[in-house]
């Protein structure tokens, strides 16, 4: 009998598109059959501001309840909407390869941020994007908007707004990347921790070996570093903080580099820092992971460590666990430095230096 995995998702066009992609990939790689069920969350039905109904965490909570109740085996979240605190009985089972983590600007007639007219109207509900926009264009009129990607795009084409800022990843998954007039460079405009990545959550007590096969080691390490910043600053998902990490190969070693910026709400001040770490074993390349907890062993090719892995002389799970520890330590150290530099005076954070 073919094994069937039940996956729960939100019902927005974006959630359905990304869950459909994950389901297809799971089937392609493992032959498993996938059943998708849609969960309606308060965040989908309520028109109230997200902050008033508990922040973006409302999306995650309803999905997690379905998992805990045993009504699904896996839930797919947008990683940036997933709170950093561990949830009893659940674990982050897998993090597949990330889409473009950048933010993108959508305007009419190919106009860039610099070229928009004085006092232009731009829509976003994200305090981070508000601060980033105001930092570059203090004259902007920011309009707090909610709603799905298509609704937001329509506000620009109809003329109600002059611009919106959206994640490139969401636009890509919905086939709407053609609407973008400008991509913001991550070095100048770091995005939300985990932006562009997906989280596959599962019950701790279950063993779902298929999850490891769609994990992407580099993505998992990068988001671990980014989320560690958020956790250490005790900042919620709506805090004006950008954190972006990436992995590059330098002389045979894999280097994890993390940039984070804390903004004052009005964008007039910001505090940023960057840090790198040389990853243990140097095998974090484009690999799928191993282990039911999605521990994600390195899958790099060519390096000494990869050879040792292949020969069974070292245990990939241990190497990867060590790399994950390094990634989390990098994020925590960078957050500590930002606090030392006065980040808590700039933005409302749970953490105090
Ligand atoms: N906050 C909503 C949200 N959550 C995930 C995405 C899509 C991009 C992603 O996967 O990070 C979006 C839309 C957006 O920010 O434009």
TrEMBL record:
The modification S-(dipyrrolylmethanemethyl)cysteine is found at residue 237. GO terms for biological process: protoporphyrinogen IX biosynthetic process. It comes from the Bacteria. Coiled coil: none annotated. Gene3D superfamilies: Periplasmic binding protein-like II, Porphobilinogen deaminase, C-terminal domain. It is an enzyme of class 2 (transferase). InterPro entries: HemC (IPR000860), Porphobilin_deaminase_cofac_BS (IPR022419), Porphobilin_deaminase_N (IPR022417), Porphobilinogen_deaminase_C (IPR022418), Porphobilinogen_deaminase_C_sf (IPR036803). It catalyses: 4 porphobilinogen + H2O = hydroxymethylbilane + 4 NH4(+). Residues 5-207 form the Porphobilinogen deaminase N-terminal domain. NCBIfam families: hemC. The porphobilinogen subunits are added to the dipyrromethane group. This is Porphobilinogen deaminase. It comes from Subtercola lobariae. The gene is hemC.
């Amino acid at each position: 009998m073919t094994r069937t995995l039940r996956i729960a998702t939100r019902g927005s066009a974006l959630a359905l598109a990304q869950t459909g992609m994950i389901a297809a990939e799971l089937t392609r790689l493992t032959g498993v059959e996938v059943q998708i069920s849609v969960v309606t969350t308060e965040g989908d039905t309520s028109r109230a501001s997200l902050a008033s109904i508990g922040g973006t965490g409302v999306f995650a909570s309803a999905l997690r309840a379905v998992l805990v109740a045993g009504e699904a085996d896996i839930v797919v979240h947008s990683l940036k909407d997933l709170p950093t605190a561990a949830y009893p009985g659940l674990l982050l089972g897998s993090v597949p390869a990330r889409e473009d983590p950048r933010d993108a600007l959508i305007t009419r007639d190919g106009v860039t941020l610099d070229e928009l007219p004085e006092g232009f109207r731009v829509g976003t509900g994200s305090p981070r994007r508000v601060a980033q926009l105001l930092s570059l264009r203090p004259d902007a009129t920011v309009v707090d908007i909610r709603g799905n990607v298509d609704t937001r795009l329509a506000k620009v084409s109809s003329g109600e707004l002059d611009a919106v800022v959206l994640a490139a990843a969401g636009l890509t998954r919905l086939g709407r990347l053609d609407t973008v007039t400008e991509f913001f460079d991550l070095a100048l405009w770091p995005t939300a921790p985990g932006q562009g990545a997906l989280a596959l959550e599962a019950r701790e007590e279950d063993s779902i070996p298929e999850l490891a096969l769609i994990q992407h080691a580099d993505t998992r390490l990068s988001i671990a570093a980014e989320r560690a910043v958020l956790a250490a600053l005790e900042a919620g998902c709506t805090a004006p903080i950008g954190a972006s990490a990436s992995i590059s190969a330098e002389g045979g070693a894999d280097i994890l580099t993390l940039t984070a910026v804390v903004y004052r709400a009005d964008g007039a001040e910001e505090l940023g820092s960057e840090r790198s770490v040389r990853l243990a074993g140097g095998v974090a390349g484009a690999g799928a992971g191993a282990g039911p907890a999605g521990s994600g062993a390195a899958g790099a090719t060519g390096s000494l460590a990869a050879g040792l892995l292949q020969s069974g002389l070292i245990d990939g799970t241990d190497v990867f666990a060590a790399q994950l520890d390094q990634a989390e330590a990098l994020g925590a150290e960078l957050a500590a430095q930002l606090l030392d530099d006065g980040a808590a005076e700039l933005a409302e954070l749970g953490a105090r230096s």
